[in-house]
Specification:
Blueprint (H helix, E strand, L loop, with lengths): L2 E11 L5 E11 L3 E5 L6 H8 L7 E6 L2 E2 L4 H6 L1 E4 L11 H11 L6 H10 L15 H13 L5 E5 L7 H16 L3 E6 L2 H7 L2 E6 L2 E7 H8 L2 E7 L16 E2 L5 E6 L8 H10 L4 E8 L2 H12 L1
Parallel strand pairs: 3-8, 3-9, 6-7, 7-8
Antiparallel strand pairs: 1-2, 1-4, 4-5, 9-10, 11-13, 11-14, 12-13
Helix pairs in contact: 3-5
Length: 308
């Protein structure tokens, strides 16, 4: 798949000595939704700020659709839309004028038809002549997205797009992001909501302490690192796992009433049938059997802990 953003050995060290990014390399595919996960201070905002031309890199290079962000700043900036986490809007500006002004900043010719279509897609058309201060928080966030899309960028960065909004609006925003991707816009979002990445992203990147720990297709990550556990509840308590069950590396609960078997659900032979037969042959009586699948959150937490 063709890259639209290419990041090579990018690093950023501030005057205080803090190294926000450490030799990061990443290719972002054209037309994908990439979610960047990481705790506060991980380097997500610094990365976005460099690509958008707000912060200068210390070393490395970034290209947007083949154009260098430093030597061809005007070209690359016109290809990018940025929706910041903060609601940076003029309180007394009208919605339609906010979009018109943003479009004009990038030297785009007036196109009322495009802005009308955009506002309708954002469910803001009936609010086009309203002042920003009269809008709800969710509507203001939609205006920010409209403002970022007014100049028809190829790449859209969303910094915590659903922070502080209710669950219903969050799901509406997910639908909007998918629609934007379908229209050809490449979307990179940062989020603290694991379910957000799990719901809408094509690929997921995990950033911590300025390093890119992992980036891959969401399903591949679940396949590689997602574990499944079978919890066997016993009718009786035991003090230790019988020697006949040692091949399955079972974990015994502290109260001696449960055995936990961790396995790869994608393997053709998981060993479950043999285990259950062996448990019965060992003289243990089963009370119940349950399974649980690792979520993207479990994977994220384990990766961050491992690299901390």
């Amino acid at each position: 798949m063709q890259n639209i953003v290419s990041i090579s050995d990018l690093s950023k060290t501030y005057s205080s000595g803090h190294q926000a990014l450490k030799s990061m390399s990443l290719d972002i595919n054209r037309g994908e939704i990439l979610a960047l996960l990481g705790p506060n201070g991980a380097g997500k905002t610094t990365l976005i700020s460099i690509i958008c031309g707000i912060v200068n890199p210390s070393t490395g290079a970034v290209k947007v659709d083949g154009h260098d962000i430093v030597t061809e700043f005007r070209t690359t900036r016109s290809m990018i839309g940025l929706v910041p986490q903060e609601l940076t809007l003029g309180a007394f500006d009208k919605v339609i004028n906010t979009l018109r002004f943003s479009r004009g900043l990038f030297g785009k010719k007036a196109d009322e038809g495009y802005l009308e279509q955009l506002l309708k897609k954002l469910s803001l058309w009936d609010k086009r002549n309203s002042e920003i201060l009269a809008l709800s928080g969710g509507m203001k966030r939609r205006v920010l997205i409209g403002k970022a899309l007014a100049h028809e960028p190829k790449v859209l960065f969303l910094d915590e797009p659903t922070a502080g909004v209710d669950v219903e609006l969050r799901k509406d925003m997910w639908t909007l992001v998918r629609d934007l991707r379908e229209s050809g816009v490449t979307i990179i979002l940062t989020t603290h909501y694991i379910e957000e990445a799990e719901e809408i992203a094509d690929r997921v990147g995990v950033i911590n302490n300025g390093e890119l720990l992992l980036v891959d297709d969401k399903q591949n990550i679940m396949h590689m690192l997602g574990k499944k556990q079978m919890i066997i509840e016993l009718k009786q308590t035991i003090n230790e796992v019988p020697e006949t069950l040692s091949a399955w590396a079972l974990q015994l609960s502290s109260d001696g009433s449960q055995l936990t078997y961790t396995y790869d659900p994608y393997e053709q032979r998981t060993g479950i049938t043999g285990l259950l037969d062996a448990v019965r042959d060992s003289g243990l009586s089963l009370q119940d059997v349950n399974t649980s699948q690792s979520s993207l959150e479990d994977i994220f937490v384990s990766l961050v802990k491992e690299k901390s």
